[in-house]
């Protein structure tokens, strides 16, 4: 198989990894107003992702770097056309990261409240805008013969794109609440389970519409991998139902795992429906950016392949070790003890 096609799927795997891992980070951040009834519970929630959020976030850097190196034409068109939403995502991620580090630097409720709001918005905006961006990439945007985006921000705010944003917002929120239930104890754990039931049902309805729309669009476009698109969409739906049922039975680990599977197969549905294009043009099919006309040279892709074979397993081992080290629940008693010591 041509290396360009291999790298299309490698980049897809990297984005799947990012959405699964940073997705539950976003959900944890968005859950603060619903689960954080006092400072101890808010610290308990934030500490569930404290050791891993920055490591999870690096996946988007790796995915973006690989996209730049493997598909420079795709990268150039995407980042020029989607400049404003991607800039908002970047600013939101910066504010969220700053808030994690600074909210506890002063014993002042007003100070903490401001940074907590930054965590919430710094999680919600990327969760929504990533869905809008990916949905528009799959649906197609105005691209001319020079491979330049000719639309505006309003072009991206179409019904399919906005629905994609709502689905990722709800999906990441629910995924994050499953993680909170898995990693905490006491009232926060019970509240998270109840909240996940409600948000899970909303997510199921929105995701069903979005996945059905995606599959029907792939059928209309006669996507080459249509059977795989249908299978991936069905598996995503089954995974989401499994997560909801597992959460209802108090099986937090299974709920979180199934939630991760839902994100993975939902993104896979979109990626497979995109093939063999990387960014369709709604102006003229002749202007589509495809795997072949947007990729780097074989020499570049060969070097990247060897680098991926050597370093990707090491990164996965390191991240797996990190999760193993911090696998225990974040208990309320431990947070209260730490506050007593601090005072």
TrEMBL record:
<keyword id="KW-0472">Membrane</keyword>
<comment type="similarity">
    <text>Belongs to the cytochrome ubiquinol oxidase subunit 2 family.</text>
</comment>
<dbReference type="Pfam" id="PF02322">
    <property type="entry name" value="Cyt_bd_oxida_II"/>
</dbReference>
<feature type="transmembrane region" description="Helical">
    <location>
        <begin position="119"/>
        <end position="139"/>
    </location>
</feature>
<feature type="transmembrane region" description="Helical">
    <location>
        <begin position="159"/>
        <end position="181"/>
    </location>
</feature>
<protein>
    <submittedName>
        <fullName>Cytochrome d ubiquinol oxidase subunit II</fullName>
    </submittedName>
</protein>
<keyword id="KW-0812">Transmembrane</keyword>
<feature type="transmembrane region" description="Helical">
    <location>
        <begin position="225"/>
        <end position="246"/>
    </location>
</feature>
<keyword id="KW-0408">Iron</keyword>
<feature type="transmembrane region" description="Helical">
    <location>
        <begin position="303"/>
        <end position="326"/>
    </location>
</feature>
<keyword id="KW-0249">Electron transport</keyword>
<feature type="transmembrane region" description="Helical">
    <location>
        <begin position="253"/>
        <end position="274"/>
    </location>
</feature>
<feature type="transmembrane region" description="Helical">
    <location>
        <begin position="201"/>
        <end position="219"/>
    </location>
</feature>
<keyword id="KW-1003">Cell membrane</keyword>
<dbReference type="InterPro" id="IPR003317">
    <property type="entry name" value="Cyt-d_oxidase_su2"/>
</dbReference>
<keyword id="KW-1133">Transmembrane helix</keyword>
<feature type="transmembrane region" description="Helical">
    <location>
        <begin position="6"/>
        <end position="32"/>
    </location>
</feature>
<keyword id="KW-0479">Metal-binding</keyword>
<keyword id="KW-0349">Heme</keyword>
<feature type="transmembrane region" description="Helical">
    <location>
        <begin position="77"/>
        <end position="98"/>
    </location>
</feature>
<keyword id="KW-0813">Transport</keyword>
């Amino acid at each position: 198989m041509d290396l360009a096609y291999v790298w299309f799927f490698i980049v897809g795997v990297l984005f799947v990894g990012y959405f699964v891992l940073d997705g539950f980070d976003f959900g944890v951040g968005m859950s603060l107003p619903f689960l954080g009834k006092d400072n101890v519970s808010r610290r308990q929630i934030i500490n569930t992702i404290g050791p891993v959020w920055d490591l999870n976030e690096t996946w988007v850097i790796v995915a973006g770097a690989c996209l730049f190196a493997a598909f420079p034409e795709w990268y150039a068109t995407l980042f020029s056309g989607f400049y404003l939403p991607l800039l908002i995502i970047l600013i939101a991620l910066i504010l969220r990261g700053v808030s994690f580090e600074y909210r506890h630097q002063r014993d002042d409720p007003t100070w903490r409240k401001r940074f907590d709001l930054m965590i919430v918005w710094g999680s919600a905006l990327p969760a929504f805008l990533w869905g809008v961006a990916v949905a528009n990439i799959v649906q197609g945007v105005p691209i001319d013969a020079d491979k330049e985006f000719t639309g505006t921000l309003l072009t991206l705010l179409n019904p399919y794109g906005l629905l994609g944003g709502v689905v990722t917002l709800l999906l990441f929120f629910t995924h994050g609440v499953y993680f909170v239930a898995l990693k905490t104890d006491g009232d926060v754990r019970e509240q998270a389970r109840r909240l996940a039931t409600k948000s899970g049902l909303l997510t199921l309805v929105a995701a069903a519409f979005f996945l059905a729309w995606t599959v029907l669009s792939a059928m209309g476009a006669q996507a080459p991998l249509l059977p795989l698109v249908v299978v991936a969409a069905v598996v995503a739906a089954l995974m989401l139902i499994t997560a909801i049922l597992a959460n209802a039975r108090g099986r937090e680990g299974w709920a979180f795992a199934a939630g991760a599977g839902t994100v993975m197969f939902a993104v896979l549905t979109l990626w497979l429906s995109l093939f063999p294009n990387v960014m369709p043009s709604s102006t003229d099919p002749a202007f589509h950016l495809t795997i072949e006309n947007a990729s780097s040279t074989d020499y570049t892709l060969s070097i990247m392949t060897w680098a991926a074979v050597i370093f990707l397993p090491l990164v996965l081992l390191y991240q797996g070790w990190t999760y193993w080290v911090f696998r225990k629940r974040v208990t309320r008693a431990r947070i209260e003890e730490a506050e007593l010591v601090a005072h």
